[in-house]
Amino acid sequence: MTVADLSVPAAADALRRGGVVIYPTEAVWGIGCDPHDEAAVRRLLAIKQRSADKGVILIAADLAQLAGWVDWDALPATRREAVLASWPGPNTWAVPATAAVPAWIRGAHASVAVRVTAHAQARALCEACAQPLVSTSANLSGRPPAFRRGELDPAVIALSDGVCAGETGGLAAPTPIRVALTGEVLRA
């Protein structure tokens, strides 16, 4: 199936209207939505056939966009410095969540997975929306992620509101996920 490319402004407009959009990230094609919109998040999870208990990653254009989502005070200074030193960049951290983070974002966890992205297009999309975005791989749960646009599952594309034009950052594997409190690697 061929879907017309969306520009960053058009993709941001779709996201603001409650849409679910596919876009390139550092390594793989991601699928995302407005993290404040429960219906959009639940739709995204249904598209992926992913359990809500797993939680989702939020990407941000800058640290300020994560205000209200992460509880930086729950981290010792050395751990907070380690997290901040890795951004912007392809490093996702499970950081203690604030009480305001809904279960549809954190899943069954007390933390929220976050990344300040260095990918120019993903960052521009967050900037255009003026907030972080849900970012999970644009594939059915349990299937391999798409590193190139041609690897995107036509069924996932058909259920989305469009594909933001661009290219991934070329990393050979999805971004690592680590626990901010300990540095433990959850996904290498």
Automatic annotation (TrEMBL):
Q: Give GO cellular component annotations, separated by semicolons.
A: cytoplasm
Domain YrdC-like intervals = 5-188
Catalyzed reactions per annotation: L-threonine + hydrogencarbonate + ATP = L-threonylcarbamoyladenylate + diphosphate + H2O
Q: Which domain of life is it from?
A: Bacteria
* Alphabetic keyword roster: ATP-binding, Cytoplasm, Nucleotide-binding, Nucleotidyltransferase, Transferase, tRNA processing
Q: What is its EC number?
A: 2.7.7.87
**Major enzyme class:** transferase
- Keyword Hydrolase tagged: no
| Pfam families documented for this protein | Sua5_yciO_yrdC
Family recorded in the similarity comment: Belongs to the SUA5 family. TsaC subfamily.
Protein task = Required for the formation of a threonylcarbamoyl group on adenosine at position 37 (t(6)A37) in tRNAs that read codons beginning with adenine. Catalyzes the conversion of L-threonine, HCO(3)(-)/CO(2) and ATP to give threonylcarbamoyl-AMP (TC-AMP) as the acyladenylate intermediate, with the release of diphosphate.
Protein name as annotated: Threonylcarbamoyl-AMP synthase
